[in-house]
Specification:
With 134 residues, the protein is of the alpha+beta class. Helices cover 40% and strands 22% of the residues. A five-stranded mixed β-sheet has the order 1-2-3-4-5. A hairpin with a 2-residue loop joins strand 2 and strand 3.
């Protein structure tokens, strides 16, 4: 009996949370059942690492020569090109945002975009990245 008021309070909070959910999770519901849903919930640094691994394994499967970068100025060396790899999951706006593109020593940047049911990829020369940021 002592726990009954607590249980009622908990049930009331649960009811309120369920009522509020619709205003907050409509976008996240798009990810239910997505093969990429687990990536969306990772911390951003870990998501970046997963993006690098996805590109590395895909490029290797396509018979590209993929090597670790000898320094921190690029993520990988793919077929002789120094490559920076960026991952973005689809934002609520319906767009991708690739962040923290720095002026480092790489030839191209691979931008990998994951939506709930699709994958988008852009390969841009460093000159394009530099122009877009000026």
């Amino acid at each position: 009996m002592k726990n009954l008021p607590l249980d009622l309070d908990v049930r009331e909070i649960v009811s309120i949370a369920e009522d509020l959910r619709g205003g907050y999770s409509s976008f996240n519901l798009d990810w239910v059942g997505s093969p990429f849903a687990w990536i969306k919930d990772l911390p951003s640094r870990t998501r970046g690492k997963v993006g690098e691994q996805l590109i590395e394994r895909w490029c290797t499967a396509q018979n590209f020569d993929v090597r670790s970068s000898p320094d921190s100025e690029a993520d990988r060396v793919i077929s002789g090109l120094r490559v920076e790899i960026k991952l973005s999951t689809l934002w609520q706006t319906g767009k991708y945002k690739f962040q923290q593109l720095r002026d480092q020593d790489y030839d191209v940047v691979i931008c990998l975009g994951l939506s709930p049911s699709n994958v988008h990829c852009w390969v841009l020369s460093k000159e394009v990245r530099t122009y877009a940021n000026s």
